[in-house]
Amino acid sequence: MLRTLIFGVTGYTGIELVRILSRHPHVSIIAGSSRTWADRKASEVFPYISSDNNFPITELHPLLEKPDADVAFLALPHGDSAIAARRLLDSGVRVIDLSADFRLKDLATYESWYGKHKDPGLLDRSVYGLAEIHREEVRGADLVANPGCYPTTVILGIAPVTNVNGVDTSFPIVDSKSGISGAGRGAKLNTSFCEAGEGFKPYGATGHRHIPEMEQELSQLFGKKITVRFTPHLIPVSRGMVSTIYLKVSPELDDGHLREVFKQFYRDEQFVKVLPKGVFPDTARVRGSNQVHIAVEIDGRTHFAIIMVAIDNLVKGASGAAVQNMNIMYGMEENTALKALPLFP
After folding, report:
1. Active-site residue, selected from the candidate residues 93, 95, 149, 296
2. Is the entire prediction scored with pTM above 0.85?
3. Domain at 150-313: CATH architecture
4. Boundaries of CATH 3.30.360.10 in the chain?
């Protein structure tokens, strides 16, 4: 059994990790950290926890002093993860970080978007954990940077056209919508029910922090600089995310051909489903699952490819991807604990 720690266990991504790992046959959650709920048992915080998995919840620092674990998930704020990761790695614990602390390889880029990095020496050691793109690197890693939710949709939506003639990938236009859980569990006025429950609004229209992550990975894939025009929106649902990506294409390109390119690219990926023509991704059809639904259409009037991608932002956009990475790191079946079908309705 893998002895597992979850730092930040009472945030949304931490709670989702508990939900997924509790059904993992090869994992034992031995402890979690929380500022608010320290010195309690998991069953006091999560009433649905079974007695055989009633792990203790403590402050962060005692777990760092004596981690005594095989792998740790860091569902901590940006900045805090870097400090914790170093302590855990030095103790021989493999780390999967769900913050942005190790996603960006260029220190100057990180610090221009997130502020001073607290352990830049670990940047070269980390592997970007989008399994469908970096599976082999993840396999041997001891520090995995779990992707952001928006970048997951954008990178998976664009990656298949790497070698497709007639597709202009230099300037993707991306319009994304996310459920409110993407803002985290902490109390904030703009994500409270009365403020967001019946609203629908864009935010971060010219400077969302996920932009450099998208551009880094897409530029690496395509071997040239990619600049992304990205606008996120907040929608009044608890979880779920859809990104619509626009790429200019030549008039000769047929959407049937492009759809087949996507099917071939993801033919061995059990979590990615390319939808048939006329069927569009829906957050309700991926809710609670690690699935990615992709639709591809070409608008013959404007000569744009329209690529639509839906995920559950808390599962494939965060905790599910983290467990997928852990499974790869330890040579287990990649879908272990992730086979659950979407919740519907």
Report:
1. 149
2. yes
3. 2-Layer Sandwich (3.30)
4. 150-313
Question: Own/partner pairs for 267-274, CB < 8 Å, 24+ apart?
Answer: 269/132, 270/334, 270/335, 271/132, 271/316, 271/324, 271/335, 271/338, 272/132, 272/156
Q: Which CATH architecture has domain 2-125?
A: 3-Layer(aba) Sandwich (3.40)
pLDDT tens column, 120-137: 999 999 999 999 999 999
The token pair at 6 is 């979850």
Tokens 């962060």 locate to 60
Using DSSP bridges, classify how beta strands 94-97 and 272-274 pair: parallel, antiparallel or unpaired. unpaired
Selection from 190, 176, 182, 186 nearest residue 239 by Cα: 182
Q: Which two tokens stand for residue 169?
A: 């990938």
pLDDT band for 51, please (50, 70, 90 cuts): confident
Quick check: 304 pLDDT over 80? yes
Q: Which of 307, 306, 324 is nearest to 315 (CA)?
A: 324
Around Cβ 81, how many Cβ atoms within 10 Å? 26
The verdict on whether 194 is a catalytic residue reads no
Cα dihedral: 182, 183, 184, 190 (round 10): -140
